[in-house]
């Protein structure tokens, strides 16, 4: 599934259009960067903290923190956030 994600660290904030999928107990993000090689981030679900669902400008979001990096996923298309919530067991 594809969606927009904001990755926030102590030094910067970046927005990406990413493909996400779950592989066993890992969330895999594949982020295209134009002419550069695609960035691939693997997030072990055991390190996910501060998991929460919210709304931003009327659209659903899912936010969590891993090792002081905050990930915010925005609703883009049908059922992306519902899929994330189901996989992350957030109700």
Task: Summarize the topology.
Blueprint: E1 2-8, E2 13-23, E3 26-33, E4 36-44, E5 49-56, E6 59-66, E7 69-74, H1 80-88
Antiparallel strand pairs: 1-2, 1-7, 2-3, 3-4, 5-6, 6-7
Question: Please, could you describe this protein's structure?
Answer:
This protein has 1 helix and 7 strands. A hairpin with a 2-residue loop joins strand 5 (49-56) and strand 6 (59-66). It is mostly beta strands and 91 residues long. It has a 7-stranded antiparallel beta sheet with strand order 4-3-2-1-7-6-5, with helices on one face.
Helix/strand/pairing class, anyone?
A: mainly beta
Strand order of the largest sheet: 4-3-2-1-7-6-5
Rough outline: globular
Report strand %: over 45%
Continuous helix count: 1
E-strand count: 7
Helix content: under 10%
How many strands, which pairing sense, and closed or not: the largest β-sheet? Answer: 7 strands, antiparallel
Low-confidence stretches: none
Rounded mean pLDDT score: 91
Topology as a string of helices (H) and strands (E): EEEEEEEH
> End-to-end distance, in Å?
20 Å
> What integer value in Å does the Rg equal?
12 Å
